[in-house]
Amino acid sequence: MRLSEMKEGQSAVIIRVGGKGAFRKRLLEMGLVKNTPIYVEKYAPLKDPMELLVKGYAISLRVEEAALITVEALTDIH
Amino acid sequence: MEKKHITIALTGNPNAGKTTIFNALTGTRQKVGNWAGVTVEKKEGVITHGTYEIHVVDLPGTYSLTPFSMEEIIARNFIIDESPDVVVNIIDASNIERNLYLATQIRELDCKVLFVLNMADLAASKGVRIDAAKLSELLDVEIVYTVGNKGEGVTALLEKAVRLAEEGKPVQPERRVRYNRDIEAAIADLQSMIDAQGGLFYNSRWIAIKLLERDEIVSRRVSSEAGAAGKELLKKADVHRGRLADLFDDDLEIIMTDERYGFIAGFVKEVVTITKKNRVDLSRNIDLVLTNKFFGFPIFIFFIWLMFQLTFSVGAYPMEAIEKGFALLFFAADRMLSDGLFKDFIRDGVLAGVGSVAVFLPNILILFFCIALLEDTGYMARAAFLMDRIMHLIGLHGKSFIPMLMGFGCSVPAVMATRTLGNRKDRILTILITPFMSCSARLPVYIVLAGTFFPNAAGTVIFLIYLSGIVIAMISGRIFRSLLLRGEDAPFVMELPPYRAPMIKGLLIHMWDRARQFLKKMGGVILIGSIIVWGLSVFPRDISFSKDYAKELVDVQNAYQLKMDKIEDQALMRRLASERDEAVKNIIRAREKERTEKVYMGRIGKAIAPFFEPLGIDWRGSVSLLTGFVAKEIVVSSMGVLYAVEGHDQSALGKALRSSGMTPLSALSMMVFVLLYIPCLATVLVIMRETGAAKWALFNIVYSTSVAWSAAFIVYQTGLIFTAG
């Protein structure tokens, strides 16, 4: 599923980061690489952007950008 | 004894505590400037340590050395081209995995490097234990532990850095960062080609890796420096890239990023042990409230309100003191200098000009203190998080909101505040639209005009004016984004750093720095600007008046003297005296009015009057607007002079304006013009400095003035149609 489809408090593992060029590389450099566990901490009050916990820190992505990331949801382990 | 010189460069991720370490190292001996040709801040400090004079350069905080942004290019170029003696990489120990990404890239550069595990205490409290000896062995680097905000380990850092610099021999690590076998083979192949022709500007392995990653800057440099051999090299690199991309079924630079994280995961497993898991995280709890679905915005608005409150109400006290100080100087100049041009120059040119701007110093200091506080605590990132959705509508980043908001106070610090924006295009775009946020200096103009011509709806009119400013800023933002500053619509990939207690020392250093910049500017350009305006308003000195005012004055005084001599009644006497004074004032005012028309300023006003005619603004209004270029506060006082106001209160000005033929419609048109036209001299200068180019300042002048003219034209002309019909 897409990262953008996940709800607050859900965990997943990154399968693939889509998108193009510099943006994609930037995401990877920030540690959103394959097999990385990811946790949806919250959505902003206006439902965009979202806050994620990854590799021990918090990162914020816009929903449209999160839609480019394919994840596999983990069931209730966080 | 002759001191030996060493240069050390500090690198690290944003939020890794780099600035804190830099402040701890250099204290107040730091200098801030801009990197040549760009507006990224350059911080440097010189310290003495034993027999060494150490030059500390704080490189911009980056997540990697891949050249996406100005910051990354600067950090990388500095290491490659300036070859500092030691590169100190500051790593947030509590967030080690991501921080090690930059660290491995720096390790790959094969320069002399020292790793600093900062915030070791925080990491320990999070239950993260790092085996420094093992990490040091695995990466073959020296490691120091620090707690930056307590200054712990800073001396050890300096000592190790000096020792590293002394060692002299280039570091050739045996356990360098390794890639997959196929990639290593490609690297070795390119490396041998580079070595075969005698090497290039940096070590051959690094260049080979960058060519494989299709690093544009390195590729360009290779082809320009190595000519035909360089072309050959690039072609070969492309062949390897194509082959490897097929093999891994993805772009090679992506694979290499993946690989780096792969081996980082490797040593993290070996080096880091986590003892306590999922301990209560204070920062997350604070965020439960501060970015809460329901409370997030109200709290945010409250903070902003508080910031303004502090800036403009607390700032008013020292403002008064500064005003008094200048009044004192004024008085002293009056007493000590003999009457004449020089006295006028000092008093009305220098003191009045600089004084009118100097009063903003406290506001600027307080505002920057607040902003530094928001930044250092980590709240600024949350503000951007909250506002991003709204700002995205005009093609901007959530972070742009802060400068725009500050624009309601004063555009000068607002433009300076865009420094918190990483992306250059975002910065320029924000800088260009910020002056449309009506600054506080424009308010007096609205108060006079709206109060005079819309006495029953002044508040509403002023509110609508402010609102128009916001709307025009947003429309302009959209237009600039789609026409001028296209491309790289910066993705919103932003770290939300943990909340941290701010350090007073850091806040004060930041504030002092801004104050110094502001004072420097005042001493320079504003001084010159106000002298020019003063000059235009007093020259030429010998004006041929249409009437002999001096004679008129004497006549009036004599006439009253005659009358008063005949009267005994004290009350009548007093009335006559005040009548006389009034008549004298009128003559002086008439003389002043004629003088104003005939000095250069007046002539300019008459010359530009046709430009303002379609807006319903007469030549006096035009001149007032012109003087507003120095500072918007001057508009009202210029109107006072030009419309020859009787008395000093606003209702008098209102009366004079009405009797000059100004209508509510032309007042509205003038307000719209004041809202949108050219920002003040200080703002234009700060735009020039912050964008690093005169062309943006010029563009801003032309754009805002055309928008102002068009908007005022539309308002006035459609208004005419309605009032006529």
General description of the model:
The complex is a heterodimer of chains A (78) and B (725). Chain A is an alpha+beta fold and 78 residues long. Helix content of chain A is 17%, strand content 38%. Chain A is built from two helices and five strands; from the N terminus they run βαβββαβ. Chain A has a five-stranded antiparallel beta sheet. The longest helix of chain A is centred in the N-terminal third of the chain and has 9 residues, at 21-29. The model of chain A has no long low-confidence stretch (mean pLDDT 90). Chain B has 725 residues and is an alpha/beta fold. Chain B is built from 31 helices and ten strands. Chain B has a seven-stranded mixed beta sheet, sandwiched between helices. In chain B, strands 7-9 form a two-stranded antiparallel sheet. In chain B, β3 (41-49) and β4 form a beta hairpin. In chain B, α7 (181-196) packs antiparallel against α9 (216-248) and α29 packs antiparallel against α31. The radius of gyration of chain B is 32 Å and the shape is elongated. Chain B starts with a strand and ends with a helix. The relative contact order of chain B is 0.07. The A-B interface holds A 22-31, 33-34, 41-42, 44-49, 51, 55-62, 65 and B 63-64, 66, 68, 94-98, 101, 253-254, 257-258, 261, 284, 287, 291-294, 296-297, 381, 385-386, 388-390, 392, 398, 488, 491-498.
